[in-house]
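COMPLEX REQUEST
Ligand: protoporphyrin IX containing FE
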Amino acid sequence: MLTSIKTNEFAGSESKKLAMMYFRVAIVLFGAQLLMGLIAAIQFLAPGFLFEVFDFSVARMVHINALVVWMLYAMIGSVYYMLPDETGIETVNIGVGKLAFWVLTAAVTVVVLVYIFIQVGSGTEATIWLINEGREYLEAPRWADIGIVVVVLTFYWNVFATYMKGQKTGIMTVMVANLMALAGLYLAGMFFTDNISMDQYWWWWVIHLWVEATWEVFVGTLAAYALIKIIDAKREIVEMWLWIEVLMLFGSGILGLGHHYFWIGTPEYWWEIGALFSALEPVPLVAMFVHVLYDWGKEQGIAKAEGKPGSVMKNGPAMAWIVTNAFGNFLGAGIWGFFHTLPQVNIYTHGTQFTAAHGHLAFFGAYATILIGMMYMGIQGAYGIERLKATFRSKMAIFLITFGVVGMTVALTIAGYEQVLVERADLGGGWEAFFTAQNLPWYIQAQVWRTIMGVVTFVGFIYLVWDLLTIGKQAKAAQSA
Amino acid sequence: MGTLFEPFTDVVPSFFGWLNQGPLTLTIFLHTVIILPMFWIYFQEKKKLNK
Amino acid sequence: MANENRSVWTSISFWRRSAAWVTGFAVILLIWLTFDTLGQISMGTDADLKNKVTKRVPAPTVINYHIDYKYNAKRGHEVPVIGDKQPFFGKEWSEEEAAKLLHLGKLTSQAKNCMDCHTLLGNGAYYAPDLTKAWLDPAWQNGGPLQGMTGKNTVEEAMAEFLQHPSQYPTHARMMPNLGITAEEAKGLVAFLKHMSSIDTNGFPRNFSQAAKREQGGTYAH
Ligand code: HEM
Ligand code: HEM
Ligand SMILES: [Fe+2]
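STATUS: Structure written out below.
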């Protein structure tokens, strides 16, 4: 992936080059995310580790911020990648696109350095503006918020102008409309209030309406694009599916927001709204799963009937990650989400390791997977490869990372289950109940397993980087031989 | 079955609180008003296709 | 029935229009619900407290009152019960003073990033106890281990002392680090925690500190 800076074969497509720049930063931040997760996981087991030097809160903050930021980078990269293919023209203003990339990257670097070295400030507005905002996921200080909004606006304008000028596919129509909602929602997280209920109310607008509405639709559009590219799926069919997915995702996900309004001071009517709308959220995830596997089977069947030998697949590793996405999205968001989405259950699971189990499998299954798939698409394009086949390293990467994250999820689910029963159901919460549950052997064993599985994930990540750095060159050499 | 129809318990009366009268009344109402117009869209599209 | 092979179910236009309708209408409903909810979760006033008007989120001057968490048979779960006046750091706080103190506390909670170790209203991190009803925790009351270790004799003074020097009062291997919290900031944080415990959370956490209650008998807060 790095070598492709020089030997890149995007005939005249600056947009795709820009996409690769975003992918590169994304993968670095992914690595940083995993390291921070490991530090935080170790602190559960050895609380003295880096105590008062690099506390849990700091490691965790960088862990989840790196997560959100690498995903945004990979999302922007994916859009720049597909834009010329979908619109049929070059992205209108690459210069501004590149400038925005450097501004964003500089800002992210400063924010991370401040998180790591300054960590906390005094209880004043200046801290909120300059150091950190202290609201999970949205910790970025206000100056950076504003910077992010400006950069995202230039990105959006670039996409929109290209869309208006070029050909307007269904995929791009959904993309353009959805990106506007995605960017606009960020504004809901940019103010301060003394009222913690009000604070949480709007905080969830950003978090939930991102991951359970706009990001999901984004993934739907990416999968639609990728299926056309990788297995020659028919555009009419893919676009019809896409509209069905939009219908179901937004139909359930928007009011599904109510599942976060059970206990934060908001009225009881949210119990019903949150329960039933969010209970339907897994339905589109099943549909997306069926869609990917069905299209794959169908295209393969057509090729076979036409007497074409071999696989229809033009990019093995990308398709593997996209199938993992279909499965992981359904499992992590759909199943693990449904587990705790009814208020009758959520009153006990709310804010336990159960939530963390779901958070990990959902973010990984629904987003990390497909974005990694897009990086492989990028490599294929950058080296001009007809058919990209998985290498041993690709296989190790996908196996170890998936196995590791699923392992962590299972461990955290067990820890959460123990917490639900002991801390919440039996002891009723509170300081003493919390520590009683934290110190039981079953909980500690689960934390040990989570850490081991975290290491497995990290080893998989090393294979992934290694593969991304080498697979293109290797395939190119094989192709010209 | 005495507890199936719960009395209204929300603290502050409001339109949505008022719809929230018993088992799932509010959410079923909202689902219905969202789904119903889709029938209309369906039949309109059917007419268009048949032409 | 003229055209058998053209089904509405495979018509892109049908799905596009349905998607637009469902999305648009869901957004409108959400905005409507948001107005309704915001009205209900805006902070009450000092007059509400004086007139015993129940608010889901009371005014900052709720710090001048005794707060309890009691089972409400009609609603089927516990709710905060605001009782008689009770001095907070030895005095009664005016509306303006209380609002200022709460503001400082909320700001400090963000500046020190409490939410990346603890949960507030159940949201945040799972490394340290939920703080939603920390003010009412039996461990902080007279005779409770947390109040006891600080050597103070009110909940607010004990909490403020702990927050300023948390690593001087270890109870478990997992400790809260020193975050450089000043005496003023600590007061603000305690006001923030006390205010949060008065919010009507529809019964979360359920059966709060049931075990401690079983052991000690009596109500949750003394
Ligand atoms: C890809 C989609 C999804 C992602 C990335 C995701 C991620 C997350 C994360 C990270 C949290 C924890 C937030 C926090 O830090 O407090 C969370 C909470 C939650 N999610 Fe999801 N989620 C997804 C989809 C779903 C779905 C489809 C459902 C329900 C069917 C669901 C139900 C919930 C519930 C009920 C909570 C609250 C947990 C609590 O009370 O502590 N999620 N989600
Ligand atoms: C090396 C592997 C990893 C380790 C050791 C790790 C560890 C952790 C730890 C210790 C926390 C804090 C949980 C708490 O507050 O109790 C956390 C939170 C989180 N991590 Fe990871 N993590 C890893 C990989 C990942 C990956 C791959 C993703 C997603 C793609 C992810 C997403 C998250 C999210 C969304 C949260 C917040 C969860 C919530 O608030 O419910 N992590 N992680
Ligand atoms: Fe959600």
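REMARKS: Chain B has one domain: 15-50. Residues A 34, 37-38, 40-41, 60, 63-64, 67, 355-356, 359-360, 363-364, 368, 405, 454, 457-458; C 125-127 surround protoporphyrin IX containing FE (ligand 2) (CB under 6 Å).
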